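Structural prep section.
Before we set up the soaks we want a predicted structure of the protein with zinc ion in place, mainly to decide which crystallisation condition to try first. Input record follows.
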Amino acid sequence: MTYRFLLLFGLLFLLLFSYLLYLNPEFLTLRLAAGLETRGTLPFFILISFAAGGLGVLFLFVARSVFYYFYGFKERKGRRHVQQAVQEARQAMEYRLAADYKKAVKKLKRALKLDSGNQEIRQLLVRVRLEAGEPQRAMEVIEEALKNDPDDSRFQWLKVEVLQAMGDNLRLINQLMYLKGRYPKNVAILNLLVTGLMGQSYWREAIDVWQELAEIAKGAKNKKEQGEIAVQLDNCRYELAVQQWQAGEREEARQTLKELLDKNQKFVPAYILQAAMEEQDRQNPKRIEAALAALKQGYRRQPNAWFLLEGERLLFTESEKNEEKVEKYYRKAVSRYPDYWPARLLFAFFCLRHQRLERAAEMLLEFKKQGINNPLVKILAGELSYRQSHQLNEAADQFKKAIGLEEAPPLVFVCGHCRRYAPSWRPRCPECGHYNTYELSADLVTLT
Ligand SMILES: [Zn+2]
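Run finished without errors. Recording the C-alpha cells verbatim:
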C-alpha cells in the first residue's frame, strides 16, 4: 500500500519537474551546455523530458530501496526468525527426549523470543516444565498463553494437568468447573471434578456430580459404570451425613442417611452412624432404645458382628444388670441367621464371660454340627473346657501356646476387600478406601 503510494508520488513528481523545466529552463544549466537557444521548442522539451525521466527513475529506485530497508527488511527477517524458532524447538525436543530439561527450556525460550506468537512452542514449554517437575513455572507459561487467547482450549486443559501436579485442589476444582461449563457432558471432566470435590470433603457437590455421571451412564446403558457410581453415591452420602452430624445438623444428617438407605439397605456404616447419633442425643430419654432399634434394623438387613458388639455395649451402658436382655438380643440374632457364625461365636463368648457354660457348650456343639472349625472356635473350645474343669487346665494352656497365643484372643476385624486387619470395626478401610467391608475375622491375628 505504502509502496504504491510512493510510486504514484514519484510519477507526479516527475511530471511536475519536467513541466517546471519546460517553463523555466534556466533552472538547469543544460541550455548553456547544449549551447542552444532553443527555449520553447519541441526538441528542447523532449531533451528535458528525457533528463527529468532519468532523474525520476533514479529517485524511484532510491525511494524503493529506502522503503525496503525500513519495512521489507523487517518482514524478511520475521520469516527467517520463524524458521529459526522451529529449528530451536526441534533441538529442544531432542533435549527433552534425553531428559535434559534445562537445555530444552533454554532452547524453547529462545524460540519464543524469535517467534513470540507461537502457541505450539509455548505448549511444548509447559510440557517440559511439567516433566522437569516445575509446575509453578508451567503455570506462568500457561497464563502468558491465555493472555494471547483466553479461550485456547489446549491451555485450559493443560491448566488442569498443571494444577494437579501442583496439588492445588481448590484452583483445580475452579478450573474444572469452568471446563464443565464449556463441556457439560464431558465424562473426563466430571470424573476429575468429583475426585477433587471428594478430596476437599465437598460431599454435597460431589453427590450432584455423581448424579450427573449416573445420568450419563444410564444414557449409555453402561451397567458396570452405573453400579460403580451407585457405590460412590452411597459413600458420599455417608460422608455427608457424618459431616452434617458433626456440624450439629442432626435433621439434615438423618435425611441424608434415609436417602442412602432407600438406595442401599445393606450399607452397614449408615446404621452404625444412626445408632451413634441416637445414643448421643442427650435430649432423648429413650436414646438407648432408639440406638438399639437402629442396630437391630441394620442387622436384619445385613448381619455384621459390630451390630452385636455395639448392642451388647449399649445394653450394659443402660444397666449393668442387663444380662438377660443381652442374652435375648444374641438369641434373636442367632435365630435370624442360624448359619452366620459370628453371631453364634459372640453369643458363646458372652455366655463364657457370664458363666453360662451350658449354653456356651450348646453353641460349640452347633459349630461341630455345621462343620465350622475356625481358630476362634478352637479357642472357644479350649476356654470352655478350662472353665468347666474349674482349675488351671493344662490342656487348654498347651492349646493356646500351640497356636501362639498367651492370652485370650482379641477379636479382630478384617477388610473384605484388601484383608487389612483392624482391632475394631471400621466404616471405611484406611488401606484400600472401600466402605462397608469390615467384618469379624476368623483368623488369629495379633495386632501391634
Ligand atoms: Zn481394605
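Observations: The chain is about 75% helix and 0% strand.
Flagged for discussion at group meeting.
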